[in-house]
Every structure is written in C-alpha cells, then in structure tokens.
Amino acid sequence: MPLRRCEGCGIPRKLSERYVWPGNGVILARNDPEMRMVIFEADYYAYVWSELERRLGVNVADAMIRGQQAATLDYLRNHILYGWRIYVVRHLPTRLLFEATMREMPLLGLCRMELLSFSRRRYIVLKVISPFDIISIAWGVKGLLEYATGRRSELSWRKEGEDYILTVMLMPREGPEDAVDREAVELIREAKRELCLGGDLMPPGEERGDNCPSCGLPLALAELEWVEEEGVIRRRDSGRRYIFTTGHILTGVIRGLERKLGMDIDPLVLQISKEFHMRDLRGINIRTRHGAYRSAARYLMAGGFGKVLEFSYGEGHLEMSIANPFYIPRLVGRIAGLFEYLEGEEAEINHRMLDAQTLRLELKTI
Length: 366
Known about the structure:
It is built from 11 helices and 14 strands.
C-alpha cells in the first residue's frame, strides 16, 4: 500500500499520525511518550560499531544484536501490537504480522521487503531491498518471528546483487516465554528514560519553527524524500541516505558495553561521531559560518536532536545552548565535527548541563 502524502508538504501522513514534533527539539511516539525518535545518517550505526570494535578490541556485534532484538520487541509492543493486539498475536496468522511490519520499513527508511515464501510452522523467506544495515534488519526479523511463534529460530542470508535473501528457520521446540535477553530489555528501557530526561523535558516555547499548515510537521522535513520503491529516505539536494529510528538502541548498546567493560565509553563515542561528521562534510563548500550554524540548528530541531536556544560564534570559537539534548556524545560530536570542518583546526571541546534540560557547549580552536 503506497504511503499517503500530505497535500501541503508531501511528507508521509503516517509521520504526523504516529509521531509528535512538539516544537521543543524532540520527536515522540504517540503510543509511547518515552520513545524518542531521531533522523540521522543511515551509515552512522555501521561506522560507530566498527570503530568501537577497532578501538576497544572487543566484539560489539553481540551487544548490538542483543540491543536490536530488545528494541524490536519494545517497538512491536508499542507500535504494532499495542492494546488488545498483544494478547492475541500468537493466535493470529503470523503472515499478517509480517505484512504490517513490512509496511513500516519504507516509512522508517530502513529497507523494503518482499515476502517470497512462508510456512507458519517452518520458515519465512524475505527479499530485503536496500537495507540500511543487513545485520540490524536480519536480527530484527528473527526476533519478530520468535516473538510471534514462541519458538527459537536459525537465521541466514545471502546477497543477490544489491539485495538480500533472508531466511529464518523455526526450531522444532518452543523457546522460553520471553526469548529476548532480559538485561538487554532493561538497558533499552533505561536508555529510553535517559533520552527523555526522566520525563522532565523542557516544554515548547513560542518559537516552534516553520511547520506545514496541513499536517503540522516541520517544513525542514520536506528536504527529505521518501523513496518507497527502494525503502529509503534521501536528502533531495545531495542524495544522502537517512533513517528515522528510535534513539535508544545506540544508547542502550553503549550502556551495555560500559557495564561489560567497566569503563566510560561516552568520550570515545563523541570522538567517533566527530570524525564521522567531518568525513561526511568533506568536499562540501560551506559559504558562511552563520549559514552553517543556522542550518545545523534547523536540522537538530526537525531531526529530534534538541532545540538550539541560542548560539554565538566568531573566528575560532562557538558557544551554543541546546534544550532537550539527544544522547550528548552523539550530539556534541556532530556539532564539533562541523566546527572543526569550518575552522580547519582541532577544537577544545567543553560541555556541561546548565540544568536538567539544557546543554551548554563551548568550542574553541587549539
């Protein structure tokens, strides 16, 4: 079923029906006000996981997979199987659940799926078109099938051209009632509370940005194009791919790694995020600092990273205050990467919370 579009801005209607942009720099799910959503570059996950593995010398894939399965379960319970649906899921055709899930994928920019073959008690075979990250997609599908059937499964996939053929085979015996790692589920829940500042978000002020008069979504989102036949979201000007995703997977996985390793990983995530965005900006001609920082503030607001309350800058320095900041190492790394790219020099980075809701960031060249 094609995505219905807003007549005013062309953005998919489901975004305004299922999610809320209150105007305070956050995106929240209507069915789960603790679920904070963000829009960011599709290849960021793969980059940060690989860099953490390389620099820490540990296997991050296991923590990422556990986090993905836990987040999939959380998303199912709050977006697809909410209310009465959760009590009857194992009595309904599993195919219906997969069809509902497949319809979600292009909206989030994660991929497009086609059901190739299915047997309720044996297996499911899917064609996955343009996945943003095949590991995340594959383990999400595995978790979905196990949750729907109450049985363990085995997962495999192969690449065919630019697409993937994904097969999940059900095991003969039933698994435990909750096959998802309980520690991973708790980490996801803690991450949700962390990103929502414990429910103490700064409320919207008078300045809420430019919104579509028809659907109410930020007009900045019209800079993105939802390409349904590919299952992707792209910037209209550059073709850069983005995803619309829950913010707590990244945070939950990081907190799990910190617990396992007994160390603070946030400074490393900040550095990796800064390097990612500097690489992303390479070759882009930015005319003025003012235009760059105003554009960044507009993106942070529409993308769910926080609301820039004020900023000041000059040669070699930038000061910025941000309400309702998203995961701080990710946010600060993004802005620091832009600053260092503009200045052409390494920066001294200082940030602190002025209060429970406001981040103060100060950057200056070394």
